[in-house]
Amino acid sequence: MKEVQAINRFKRFLEVEKGLSPNSIYSYTYDLKKFSDFLSSYNKDILSATQDDIQQFLNFEKNKKKNSSRTMARSLAAIRQFYNFVSDKMEEIDNPTAKIESPHVEKTLPDFLSIQEVNLLFSSISENDIYELRDKTIFELLYSCGLRITEAIEIVYNNVDFENSLIRVIGKGNRERLAPIGEEAKRLLGKYLNESRSAISGKRESEYLFISKKGSKLNRKSAWRLLKNYVARTKIRKNITPHTLRHSFATHLIENGADLRAVQELLGHMDISTTQIYTHLAKKKLQEIHKKHHPRG
Question: Domain 3-89 class?
Answer without folding.
Answer: mainly alpha
